[in-house]
Design brief:
2 strands; two-stranded antiparallel sheet; 3 helices; mainly alpha; elongated
C-alpha cells in the first residue's frame, strides 16, 4: 500500500513496483517537460501571422466590426 503527501509518493515496505520512480518523479518531470515544449510550439504556431489565432482575429474584425461600414 502506498500514500501521497503533496507531490511525493511513498511506498510501504513489501509493496511491489517501482518505488524509486514515485519518490523522485524523474519520468513525471520528463513527461511534463515534453508537454511544456509541445504546448509552447503550438502557442508559437497559433500566434504566427498566418496562424489560427490571427485568422480568427481577422475573421472577427471583418464579420463583426467592419460589417456595418460596408
Amino acid at each position: 500500500m502506498g500514500y501521497r503527501y503533496g507531490n511525493r509518493q511513498r511506498c510501504e515496505e513489501g509493496e511491489s513496483g517501482e518505488a524509486g520512480e514515485g519518490v523522485d518523479g524523474r519520468k513525471e518531470r520528463e513527461k511534463m517537460r515534453e508537454n511544456v515544449i509541445k504546448w509552447k510550439r503550438k502557442a508559437e504556431r497559433a500566434a504566427c501571422l498566418d496562424g489560427p489565432s490571427m485568422l480568427n482575429l481577422d475573421r472577427l474584425i471583418n464579420e463583426v466590426l467592419l460589417k456595418g461600414h460596408e
